[in-house]
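Run log, item B.
One chain of 208 residues. Sequence copied directly from the ordering sheet:
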Amino acid sequence: MKDLGELKYFLGIEFARSADEIIMHKRKYVLEIISELRLGAAKPVATPLEVNAKLTTKEYDDHLGTSSNVQPKRSHMDATLRVVKYVKNHPGQGILMSNKTTGTLEAFCDADWVACQHSRTSVTSFLIKLGGSLVSWKSKKQTTISRCFTEAEYRSLAVTIAKLVFLVGLIKEIGVDVQLPVNIHCYSKAAIQISANPDFKNEQNILI
């Protein structure tokens, strides 16, 4: 086995190291995309997506009479270009891992009820930090249709907890003490009450 020295580049990710921290970013890739799309002179934007923007395939589906053939429209391309203009602000921005990171896990979860106007499915989103450093994140459509906002939030909370259980086991396995319990920030008070009260959960099962 050959020692290749300090890690600087792996799987397309660049690593910059100092005495106190490591930052992982994809600056080279971002600059390549900006050049490829000829956006070098484009004005950067402050947000990756316009407020309340919804991208659907409805116009295409209505014209074709089926939902099995999905193709992007101009609106999708415009949204893609906006994301590139957003990362153009700080192409070297990435994930920071500090040597001062503690074993404190903190999670934030949310749900966008009926986010997809086509399938009527909601979207689960969460991010998890370890000592202030981002270690896990996800945004994905839920597999079943939630019939109310609380149900969508509850499903999002359940997915977040499942991920936390995995991370706690993984972190302990590599020899890091994890401070328990883990704080989870959830927007829905109703979803929190259902999770904390078994009797309430049984009543909710009858409703849904």
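Observations after the first pass:
- The first strand starts at residue 9 and ends at 10.
- The chain has two domains: 9-87, 101-207.
Flagged for discussion on Thursday.
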